[in-house]
């Protein structure tokens, strides 16, 4: 029951986050221009590079809270664990902010290629963004704590509120105060401060009560350092794999074209918002089942979660793959934006879908504390992907990195899945490939392909929306019917008296 509620809350929270991003991105571009949007994209990539200073602590806290909360007499250890990691995290936040302030002038002067924006405007924007990053940095830690304690309804309400304040407030500032990059970023500072303050308050309220004050405990670091080190190594490698395209293109493309690429990435990355809530809900549950060695229940839950992943991600991914230009035009009314980005959106969506299929197997590996496989796979991927991206970018331009992204995730699907199942749940590999992923994907591809052939393009925006929604519903129904365990886990009683998910 807790897992069902957490998944529902996470899906709702991520849905609002994705919707907000899709709604407001064109408005930001309208007020700020593509160049200013590109500046924000460059900084987001730089911020991601510095995420290595997280040292895997957010995921570690998530796992520790899930593990400890399932045991009796761990209240003091829970609170001491949070306090210990808080000291490290806030120190890293300060360091990240100062480092960004130091490197911002260098990036403004020597890296990006503006057309209309002046270097002074870019430098000022980077200074504002440095403060935003420092304030948002600790949010990941407290989110990890609330996830591990399975307070995901609370977390999603807070996140949805923060996104609303951040986005709606920014539009009001651009509309009523000043349509400038500095005004937009000044509001982001205010929104980031409110966000982290609320997360701190609600995380501490969620902790069990103890008779003494929580304290920094070095012995806790000794207990968690191996897992944290493994997660830190993975974070560095994932960072390279996911940000290298933007780092390379920010240097090779002018700022306007890079802004188009950032927009395409934002659209394709919205798929991750469908998977992130599922990961947050299932990871604590898998951790508990693995810790208690309940293999039968773990296997059933693993397949149900994998099929739920397919049901969530396949329809959205195939819509963006087969109908990217139509979706962008129906959404923004901007033909030029669709023409410049549809190829990138289509290719990125394929790679992101394949990556999403790996989320449940990856969470199972982490539930067992097994980080070596993903680490070694990512080391190999970095060795191969760095030259591959450079070669494909030079040969094919803006679509080169998305092609490399598809090849990378195809390799994961073949190699990682085989090795993981052989060690953890060897009898479940065939079902994962065929029933969890294969059947839903085949049905979805067939439906999307037929719809693409029959799709009417020269219609009004209203009718275009209607057609797109109809196709999306058709793909969703087909994918759901192909997910046998997911169908079996949902019982619709007469008069909709209730819904059981993951029985």
Q: Explain this structure to me?
A:
With 503 residues, the chain is mainly α. The protein has 2 domains: 261 residues, no CATH class; 233 residues, no CATH class. The protein has a two-stranded antiparallel sheet. Strand 1 and strand 2 form a beta hairpin. The longest helix is centred in the first third of the chain and has 36 residues.
- State the domain count: 2
Arithmetic mean pLDDT: 81
Binned, the helix content reads: over 70%
Assembly context of the chains = single chain
Instruction: Please report the total strand number as a whole number.
Output: 2
Strand content: under 5%
Brief rundown of the structure:
The protein has 503 residues and is mostly helical. It contains 20 helices and two strands.
Entry keywords:
503 residues, two-stranded antiparallel ribbon, globular
In terms of topology, how is this protein built?
Blueprint: H1 2-32, H2 34-49, H3 57-69, H4 75-110, H5 119-136, H6 139-148, H7 152-177, H8 181-206, H9 218-252, H10 255-269, H11 272-291, H12 295-322, H13 324-332, H14 335-357, H15 359-367, H16 372-396, H17 400-423, H18 429-454, H19 461-482, H20 484-488, E1 491-492, E2 499-500
Antiparallel strand pairs: 1-2
Helix pairs in contact: 1-2, 1-7, 1-11, 2-5, 2-9, 2-10, 3-4, 3-6, 3-9, 3-11, 4-5, 5-8, 6-8, 7-8, 9-16, 10-14, 11-12, 11-15, 12-14, 12-15, 12-18, 12-19, 13-14, 13-19, 14-17, 16-17, 18-19
């Amino acid at each position: 029951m807790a897992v069902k509620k957490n998944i529902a809350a996470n899906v709702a929270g991520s849905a609002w986050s994705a919707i907000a991003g899709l709604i407001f991105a064109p408005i930001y571009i309208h007020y700020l221009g593509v160049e200013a949007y590109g500046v924000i994209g460059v900084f987001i990539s730089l911020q991601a590079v510095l995420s290595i200073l997280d040292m895997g602590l957010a995921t570690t806290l998530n796992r520790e809270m899930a593990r400890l909360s399932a045991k009796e007499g761990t209240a003091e250890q829970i609170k001491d664990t949070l306090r210990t990691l808080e000291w490290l995290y806030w120190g890293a936040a300060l360091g990240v902010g100062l480092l960004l302030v130091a490197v911002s002038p260098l990036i403004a002067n020597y890296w990006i290629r503006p057309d209309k924006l002046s270097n002074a405007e870019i430098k000022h924007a980077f200074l504002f963004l440095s403060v935003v990053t420092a304030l948002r940095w600790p949010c990941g830690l407290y989110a990890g704590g609330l996830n591990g304690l399975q307070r995901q309804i609370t977390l999603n309400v807070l996140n949805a509120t923060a996104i609303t304040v951040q986005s709606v407030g920014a539009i009001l500032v651009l509309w009523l105060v000043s349509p400038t990059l500095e005004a937009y970023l000044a509001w982001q500072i205010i929104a980031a401060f409110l966000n982290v303050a609320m997360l701190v308050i609600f995380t501490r309220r969620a902790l069990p009560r103890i008779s003494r004050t929580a304290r920094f405990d070095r012995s806790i670091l000794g207990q968690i350092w191996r897992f944290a080190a493994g997660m830190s190594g993975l974070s560095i490698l994932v960072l390279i794999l996911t940000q290298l395209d933007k780092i390379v293109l920010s240097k090779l493309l002018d700022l306007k074209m890079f802004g188009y690429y950032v927009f395409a990435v934002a659209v394709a990355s919205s798929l991750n918002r469908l998977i992130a809530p599922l990961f947050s809900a299932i990871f604590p549950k898998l951790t508990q089942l693995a810790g208690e060695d309940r293999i039968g229940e773990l296997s059933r839950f693993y397949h149900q979660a994998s099929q739920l992943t397919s049901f969530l991600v396949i329809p959205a991914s195939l819509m963006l793959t087969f109908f990217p230009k139509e979706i962008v035009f129906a959404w923004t009314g901007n033909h030029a934006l669709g023409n410049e980005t549809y190829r990138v959106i289509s290719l990125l969506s394929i790679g992101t879908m394949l990556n999403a299929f790996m989320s449940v197997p990856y969470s199972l590996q982490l539930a067992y504390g097994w980080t070596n496989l993903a680490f070694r796979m990512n080391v190999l991927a970095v060795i191969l992907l760095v030259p591959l991206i450079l070669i494909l970018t030079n040969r094919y331009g803006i679509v080169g990195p998305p092609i490399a992204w598809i090849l990378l995730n195809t390799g994961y699907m073949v190699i990682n899945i085989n090795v993981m199942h052989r060690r953890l749940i060897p009898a479940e590999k065939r079902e994962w490939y065929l029933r969890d992923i294969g059947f839903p994907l085949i049905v979805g591809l067939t439906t999307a392909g037929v719809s693409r052939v029959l799709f009417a393009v020269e219609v009004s925006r209203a009718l275009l929306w209607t057609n797109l929604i109809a196709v999306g519903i058709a793909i969703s129904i087909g994918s759901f019917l192909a997910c046998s365990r997911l169908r079996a886990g949902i019982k619709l009683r007469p008069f909709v008296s209730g819904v059981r998910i993951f029985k």
